[in-house]
Amino acid sequence: MKLHVADNIKAIVPYPPGKPLDELEREYGITDSIKLASNENPWGPSPLAVEAIQGCLTGLHRYPDGSSYYLTRAVADWVGCAPEEIVLGNGSNEVIEFLVKAFVQAGDEVITSHPSFLMYQKFVQVRGGENTVIPLRDMTHDLETISRAVSERTRLIFLDNPNNPCGTLISPERFEDFLRSLPETVIVVLDEAYVDFVDPAERIDVLSRIRKPDGIPAVVALRTFSKAFGLAGLRVGFGIMHRDIAELLHRVRQPFNINLPGQVGALAALKDTAHYEKTLNGTREGRQWLSEQVEELGCRAYPSHTNFFLIDVRGDATVLYESMLRQGVIVRSMKAYGFPDFIRITVGTEAENHRFVAALAKSLKELGYVAG
Ligand SMILES: *Cc1c(COP(=O)(O)O)cnc(C)c1O
User: Fold this and answer.
1) Is pLDDT at 23 greater than 60 in this prediction?
2) How deeply is 254 buried, as exposed, middle or buried, from its count of CB atoms within 10 A (0-12, 13-18, 19+)?
3) Which of 57, 156, 161, 183 is deepest in the core (most CB within 10 A)?
4) H-helix or E-strand containing 146?
5) Is the Cβ–Cβ distance between 257 and 88 less than 8 Å?
6) What is the mean pLDDT of residues 100-116?
7) 273 strand-pairing partners
8) Positions of E strands within the chain
9) In the predicted model, what is the mean pLDDT of residues 358-366?
10) How many CB atoms lie under 10 A from the CB of residue 34?
11) HSE on the CB side for 64, CA within 13 Å?
């Protein structure tokens, strides 16, 4: 083939093609593996969502409602804002893409942190924009350096809060100072994929911020049904923003970006407070217990405001990952994120957490990483 591939596309490193769980199990000769690698909800989807989705299937021959009328209203009620201030996406990932499409042209700059969620930079590359990447400081966003890196060409700043993979948080006070240090022309995107797990007293009041007084940069908050709501496979997320920004994002949105099961499933999940509370409580208890166990094994567990946390295993994390995989426990090595001795694990169910601890103990011993 003789193709003229765009230079910015040539430069993109493809998303590593992960294998399906079944395939991995076959390869390693294991069964009943547990996956604690992707920060998913181990208690499954809301039963109410499953029921609603089953109920909608006979309507699949019709296009879904292009405005997601009912879901948008339900999300706005849940957040406490107007429907005009919500934009739904095929996962919050799609809302990231809308923002980049609407605001970034070739040569424009976008600031992100490293390590952080990788998709921000990817969408910018596709668009021919420039990524300015600022390292985290003490595992948190280095807001002072980010502020200094802003130029006339900066359009967006992405901050995952809490940060993935570190689980750390920006305090409301620091965030306020940060906003006041920026020119009015940039948009600050707060990716709040894990905000459900954060103590309400420590959350940033994004609603007062999206209706900004003049002179302060616009804030867009991103939320998702993929984590606390247990619907990662359904692909529904949303952004909360000033209605003028929402109007711009609707221009780049495909009319049917939220499919029919997505619309009814997410709507039902919002009403399932029992499942939501169970997830939050189980996560809090599991994280506490796991951290204690991990420290007893001689590793260091980092505090986190999310359903995942980092562990310093005091040895090569990728070798440990392989060793645990052979025991059917899938974790994430942080080597590619710049932490060669760290793994990231997602809090599982009680049974999964016990299996994880047993497997970690065995692997650490076999590899001789920690004494004992
Ligand atoms: C998991 C995650 C998301 C969720 O993306 P969806 O497209 O909504 O599934 C977004 N941001 C961060 C930082 C995440 O870790």
Assistant:
1) yes
2) exposed
3) 161
4) helix 143-149
5) yes
6) 97
7) none
8) 34-35, 86-89, 109-114, 130-135, 154-160, 187-191, 218-224, 237-240, 300-301, 308-312, 329-330, 332-333, 342-346
9) 97
10) 21
11) 20
| CA 87 to centroid of ligand 1, rounded, Å | 15
Atom of ligand 1 nearest to the CA of 235: 9
Q: Is 262's C-beta closer than 6 angstroms to any atom of ligand 1? A: no
* Arithmetic mean of pLDDT over the chain: 95
What one-letter code names the amino acid at 347? V
Question: Domains plus CATH for the chain?
Answer: 17-44+274-367 (3.90.1150.10), 47-271 (3.40.640.10)
29: CA distance to ligand 1 center in Å? Answer: 31
Residue with tokens 């409602």: 65
CA contacts within 13 A on the Cβ side of 243: 5
Is ligand 1 within 6 A of the CB of residue 307? Answer: no
Distance 362 CA to ligand 1 centre (A): 32
Atom 3, ligand 1: which residue's CA is nearest?
193
Quote the pLDDT of residue 212. 72
Concatenate the DSSP letters of all residues of 264-322 into one string.
Answer: HHHHHHHH-HHHHHHHHHHHHHHHHHHHHHHHHTT-EEPP-SSSEEEEE-SS-HHHHHH
Is the pLDDT at 17 greater than 80? The verdict is no
> What confidence tier does 168 reach under pLDDT thresholds 50, 70, 90?
very high
In angstroms, what is the span from residue 34 Cα to ligand 1's centroid?
A: 20
